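Sanity check

After download, print the first record. It should look like this:
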Amino acid sequence: MPDPFFLYFYLKRSTMSTSIFKTFLNFTRNIKTTGAIFETSARVENEICSKIGPHSKLVIEYGTGYGNLTAKILERLPKDGKLIAFEVNEDFVAAVKAKFNDPRLTVVKHSAVELPAYIDQPIQNIVSSIPFTLIPKEEGDAIIQQSHDHMADGGYFSQVLYSKFHLKRFKKHFSKCEVKVVPNIPIEHVYHCLK
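Expected structure tokens:
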């Protein structure tokens, strides 16, 4: 993992966007709930949202950050689709609510463990950037299991992580899982798990 102090001063002096710098700062302050050091790349956004299509009437997002993935999901979401985005960080919630004026989007300031309280129909897609490496195993397993239980048959749980070591964990819950490696610094791995 890169030295946080080096990254802090590099980003502060660079010409990178304010949201990239804020994402890094949120990571250093809230390491257990902010899943990414930097915003997701366009390649990750395209890959993780690749399973969303005309059939996707209900999509769930776990972890909005400043809304990069949210924007890509809304771009692919059908006109009659619905996106419910879960986020625990107040700064991210406020930023996403201010950024989007789309009736298909509902932003919820709660953890993914609260999923059942907010849905009343099967889920076609879940797009997640939860930092499973940093949260308690029991909590992570509960999120994965209840996500599976509330998904429609043929639905996809898509997750971005910095390693491929979680594959066995996801295979315990889903019938088929694949990992796409996205070249980046650091390298990112997108899991697509089919129910």
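If your output differs, re-run the checksum step. Summary of this record's structure: The longest strand covers residues 151-161.
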